[in-house]
Amino acid sequence: MESIGSFWMWAGFLAFVLGMLALDLGVFHRRAHAVSVKEAAIWSAVWVALALAFNGLLWAGFGAERGMAFLTGYLIEKALSVDNIFVFVLIFGAFSVPTAYQHRVLFWGVLGALLMRAVFVALGSALIASFHWVIYLFGAFLVVTGLKMLLLRDQTFDPRANPVFRLFRRLVPAVEAYHGPAFTVVQGGRRFATPLLLVLVAVELTDLVFAVDSVPAIFAVTQDPFIVFTSNIFAMLGLRSLYFLLAGVVGKFHLLKVGLSLVLVFVGAKMLLSEVYKVPVVWSLGVIAGLIGGAMLASRLVPRREAEAR
Q1: How, if at all, do strands 184-187 and 190-193 pair?
Q2: Element at 167 (helix H, strand E)
Q3: Per the confidence metrics, is the pTM higher than 0.85?
Q4: Fewer CB atoms inside 10 A, N or C side of the chain?
């Protein structure tokens, strides 16, 4: 299926993304402050509404199949981004990041994530276009990743144990105390990294790992680079507000990782069986929504201790 992304559509979308990011940081979040649940809820609703409006434009201009593909890709990435939130909670807790500075870290973290996603989508599209068998590698990778996440979902995570992060700390001199929202500080004529910059590095490394999982997952729905990229980016743009909305309650959905694991296994199996049977997009949307919704419902119905015993 030919891509719907013309030069002007790509340019317009990128201009929209940059404009929204500038508005976010330059107008609404010029001063560091603790983001309230109400503020996070409003911004989450804004990002979801913008994504659905864009979905409506695709649906009206290019048909139901394209619109459904965007919606399914958006739902996959939105669901997988909840796993990011689990890790962000651990990172901010491990480094004792003041609440007022967390939005600044997430803003620059998401900006770096957008660039990484663009590179991953371009590479994935080029590989699939040149070597169709790569889609089977993607599928196998997602199945293995999903099973690994399912079996090791209770494994503890320490961002400071990452070898790249440890190398960064060894090479870059840093001070021990936070200096407001600054990433670097000058002392004695030398520039040092603050703990906030170290947290940003940990967030970027974490998202790099998640990008390896989530970008191939959307290729299971469509190989159109424009739909893959836009659905991915819309989900990432709402990640910061979703974090502040769910950070306090995400731990209550203790079976959510089971649902996310099964989503990866499902989309991976869909890739592996693409030549045997092509699962309709609407079915994919229903299965993914059912897995995520079912995991959240089960988390409320089955107490944590009983689930761990099982």
Answers
A1: antiparallel
A2: helix 163-171
A3: no
A4: C
